[in-house]
Structure of Acyl-ACP thioesterase:
Amino acid sequence: MTHEEFRVRYYELGPDGAIPLHKLCDYFQDAAGIDAHTLAFGSEDLGDAAGLTWVLTRMQLTPLCPAKAAGGDTLTVHTWHSRSERLMSRREFYITNGKGETVLKGATWWLLIDIATRRIARTPQMLIDMNPPTPEFVVEENNPKMPDFSGVQPAATLPIIVRNEDIDSNAHVNNTHFTAWALESTPPEIASSRALKELVITFKNECFAKDKLTMSVHEEQSGHGKAFWHVLTRENDGKETARIYTRWE
């Protein structure tokens, strides 16, 4: 397990004095890389030894309270590898503020791909052998099923053009941007009056610099607050690149 401290920068704070969710995901991503490296399974280790890299396939987030902070405050990310199987590996994390309060918790699911061919690779047996006898999960896995919205007019749409600065070392859009795009596409009357309680992203296809994308947002009838599906598609081939579920109360 890694406990990594991050000093909050003034430019990371939103107008409400809180750190936006996608910035918290940046912290987690950084801490995850550090922890993976301690196991000798970081992207640098795998890239040099086997030409492999990690790609995120699913992310499940549960915000618990606003990450209010001031410049110079610290947040701590706690993260660990919880389980690996033949193709998939799961990682847990939670983030605490200076008072010891948990502001965000979640889990992520990762695949290894061959850098040259972009094909999925098997999880090394050495990593599977590191599975704890009793894995500790911070959230119960939630796989919501999207209803059929065929012929239904979306509640909102958001056009997106991928910028060069959105691209990471794997030469595709970094996963944290999808979180920001989902929240940006949420109907403003919801985002301004309710709190996000859950966000689940399934990544389907890579996005690249200059791609033109459209986020289509559909409301799901829910007995627990408001729920939305944010479907991201690429304009030139119509492929779905990500499917995001958000729940608000």
In short: The radius of gyration is 18 Å. The longest strand covers residues 102-114. DSSP finds five helices and eleven strands in the chain.
